[in-house]
Amino acid sequence: MRHRPNALMLFAAGFGTRMGALTAHQPKPMIEVAGKPLIDHTLDLAQTSRFDRTIANLHYLPEVLETHLAPRNVQTLHETPDVLETGGGLKNALPLLGSEPVVTSNTDAVWKGPNPFEMALDAWSPDRMDALLVCVPLQNCLGHTGKGDFVIEKNGALTRGPGDVVYSGIQILKTDLIAATPEKVFSLNVIWNQLLKDDRLFGLRYPGKWCDVGHPEGIRLAENMLRGDDV
User: Which among 141, 156, 193, 198 is placed 20 to 30 Å from 148, CA to CA?
Assistant: First the structure.
């Protein structure tokens, strides 16, 4: 097994219903923040890592994203007739991603600080990890309401919250359990719960700031963060 994963999965199939009118004619990853679509913020960070393959799953208004992503060498995969959730979407993409560990990323967040993809790849240790989740301390999260998702123990292992860190949407994951799951539609939480039992789920604490653009107010928060006006 090679140490550095070389395939990236982008989750871009959601409806973005919390965005209201902003997603009436475009999928949420195409909403602009600071002059460029959300998905481009993710792709610009990912290009530093030089992944061999980048796959994006599409469902809502897929032709909009398909046209946008074609020049960026992103292969698209339509989920039809239904959305398969994160676990099912990843399972559906495995024939394109391959059998080695993959990097996955949501496409509705903006980052300020070190490159989260490079941090995760540098910290990945497949001998002791089956998944490594990039997590953000609550005090560095913008646009997030509620408690943290996990606690990061001294050895880096994760335990379920309420904790002091939030899952950022970026992870490295071995795909064995994904491929073996019989269901077609399922959440990655099903996989994480099994890895928690086996002490194979780890977390990485992100030192910069992160904004969840899951609602219209998140656009303003993210743009203020990028300008340094969020203090």
Answer: 198
Q: HEC states along 69-96?
A: HHHHCCEEEECCCCCCHHHHHHHHHHHH
The H or E element spanning position 40 is helix 38-46
Structure confidence by residue, pLDDT tens digits, 34-48 = 999 999 999 999 999
Name the pTM for this structure: 0.95
- The Cα 78–Cα 97 span in angstroms is 15
Structure tokens at 60: 């809502």
What are the structural domains of the chain?
7-227 (3.90.550.10)
107-159 residue pLDDT tens? 999 999 999 999 999 999 999 999 999 999 999 999 998 889 999 999 999 99
Long-range contact pairs involving 124-127 (C-beta distance under 8 Å, separation at least 24): 124/3, 124/4, 124/5, 124/172, 125/202, 126/1, 126/3, 126/101, 126/174
Q: Write out the H or E segment, with its range, that includes residue 226.
A: helix 216-227
